[in-house]
Write a structure and sequence with these properties.
The protein has 205 residues and is an alpha/beta fold. The chain is 40% helix and 20% strand. It starts with 7 loop residues before the first strand and ends with a helix.
Length: 205
């Protein structure tokens, strides 16, 4: 994988069903802007995906090819007042049969170090939990698309899905945006840190 790709691609979703505002799309855009402002250069790009299994997959794969990110953080909306750190994704039936997937284990595990995310959310007093059930909807098919793309193409090195709470009195959009922004900044920091040369480090690698 090239080191010259974008550090982070972060995605959310647009409106669907009764949710005229999807907090994940709004928060993803703010997180990318904050990470870029802090770094003084473009270190993150956000995109809002369509809430449709196949369309979201195609949009995500196009973004991955265009930006070649080192990390891809996908976010989406789930009911409940808690953030869910999704650790696995099952292949959705909507993607249809694919003989090439025969050797691929199911489900696919996330490619992510969740500890910094957990620390960022905990520091903001934001409730969170690990999840091994992404919901069998477009969120899970998108997570699977990101992980399967990484498996086939060798990038991004890190890919995962974070479920954010629905907008409620306890979780207004401003709070969700601030929480996801903290996660985005925490994620981009190690990806944008200067790398010591082998001579300065005193060792090869």
């Amino acid at each position: 994988m090239s080191d010259h790709g974008l550090p982070l691609l972060i995605t959310g979703f647009g409106p669907f069903r009764s949710f005229t505002v999807n907090p994940s799309g709004v928060a993803a855009a703010a997180a990318a802007q904050a990470a870029t402002a802090l770094a003084g250069r473009t270190v993150a790009v956000a995109a809002t995906l369509t809430v449709d299994h196949l369309t979201a997959r195609d949009e995500l794969e196009a973004l991955l090819r265009a930006h070649r990110p080192r990390a891809c953080l996908c976010t989406g909306l789930a009911a409940g007042d808690i953030y869910r750190l999704e650790r696995v994704a099952r292949r959705p039936v909507e993607f249809g049969p694919d003989d090439a997937l025969a050797p691929v284990p199911e489900p696919l595990p996330s490619r992510w170090d969740w500890q910094p995310v957990a620390e960022a959310l905990t520091a903001r007093n934001a409730p969170w939990r690990y999840s091994d059930d992404c919901g069998r909807y477009v969120c899970e098919s998108t997570q699977y698309a990101a992980l399967h793309f990484a498996q086939r193409h060798g990038f991004p090195a890190a890919a995962c899905f974070l479920h954010v709470p629905a907008i409620t009195e306890l979780f207004p959009q401003e709070r969700i945006t601030a929480d996801v922004t903290a996660v985005g900044v925490q994620t981009t920091s190690p990806l944008t840190a200067p790398r010591a040369s082998s001579s300065r480090a005193g060792r090869g690698r």
